[in-house]
């Protein structure tokens, strides 16, 4: 937190200083020692080059060359990299962007969202199930509300979804 001797400083520029007059394009101002209660005077810098827009329908291909598909064992849905045909209906997923900008993925086969599946004793917590019908993304279990961010090493290259705490 800021104290009496520290200030929040925000700087902005429309263009790189190398291209235009160094005194007419930039803005710098200091505000109170603490941001306002809604953080309206605090900004987040976004690297637009790093943003990835996912298509509405996606499939995931594993290191084994197979596609992630919805399966069922003893009446419990789960996901497995076992399908060899990318047009298999069990492979298709739909992407939803939640209001908090987290990515939610819904199996078009099960018509349910994915969630991280944890065992009651937390001994097994790495399964991803496609069995959540929580459409509001408000499940109180933090493991079921994990966000994903998408990144790419190069534009047009493979995309990677990473769980974010």
UniProtKB/TrEMBL annotation:
Gene3D superfamilies tied to this protein: 2.80.10.50
Composition skew (Polar residues), residue ranges: 119-138
Protein name: Agglutinin domain-containing protein
InterPro entries, alphabetized: Agglutinin, Agglutinin_dom_sf, Natterin_C
Region (Disordered): 107-143
Signal peptide per UniProt: none
PANTHER family: NATTERIN-3-LIKE, NATTERIN-4
SMART domains: Agglutinin (SM00791)
